[in-house]
Amino acid sequence: MGASMKDIKHRIKSVESTMQITKAMELVASSKLRRAKERAESARPFFNILYETITDLAAHDEESFYTRDRSGKPPLYIVIAGDRGLAGGYNANIFKLVDPQIADPATRIIAIGKKSVEHYDHRPWKVEGRYSGAAEQLKPALTMEMASRILSLYKKGEIGNVYLAFTQFVTPLTQEATLLQVLPLAMHQDDTPRRGEPMLYEPSPAAVYRSIIPQYVSGMIYGGIVESYASEQGARRTAMESASNNASDMIGALSLSYNRARQSAITQELTEIVSGANATK
Q1: C-alpha span between 128 and 109 (Å, rounded)
Q2: Which pLDDT score is estimated for 164?
Q3: How far apart are CA 238 and CA 26, in angstroms?
Q4: How far apart are CA 58 and CA 209, in angstroms?
Q5: Cβ atoms of residues 35 and 221 within 8 Å
Q6: For residue 157, is it left (φ>0), alpha (ψ between -120 and 50) or beta?
Q7: 168-209: per-residue pLDDT in tens?
Q8: 165 burial class (0-12, 13-18, 19+ CB within 10 angstroms)?
């Protein structure tokens, strides 16, 4: 019985040490989440306007190189995952969304995030780019570099449709794995009247349209990364909070078992003392 009590006590100390780690990680994730959420929310208006502009320009250049069907060529997937684990199903969900969509063995991948690089380095598809540790201190220059690389492959005819896979931040408790088509541009015309005067483009809508495409692709990638980073911190905070709660429940159950074992040991000792006293009479 004494050995059992010793094992339980050791187990309690081990779980308490683990809970200290999960509590610390929860606090760190909460701090990073606030900054990441602010960055994601501040970036959304710019990219919404960018998409509206590209849509308006495409209406003036319907036969553009960037709107033609490219389904006959190998697709390229830009897959954004985290740089660390311990974030619940955050990383697994994006791979579960993307991998079943890939049917062409010649598919190209641009992996953003350490977990994405590790995942696709062990898959049969060609990895065109590996970017680890970029999300926390993301610079627009890096996404422009990615966009230039993608557009170079696109113009050469080496790739077809370009897709962006990222995790959209909804709330700290809710994140949605999302797959969007970046190229070719799928424009949806609507009959909603526009406010104000029509936009005037100089030197011409077609020229502006072609020059803004790199900004559009870079913007989509930037937006996907900041949304994914906020989602990662939200998922990690939730996972660490759950782990801390589970550790607390486990400590309570182990403490109860320890007290029962201790009480049983004391009762047994008292019984032995009484039995010994009666035997000497």
Answers
A1: 6
A2: 95
A3: 8
A4: 7
A5: no
A6: left
A7: 998 888 899 999 988 887 654 444 444 455 566 667 666 777
A8: buried
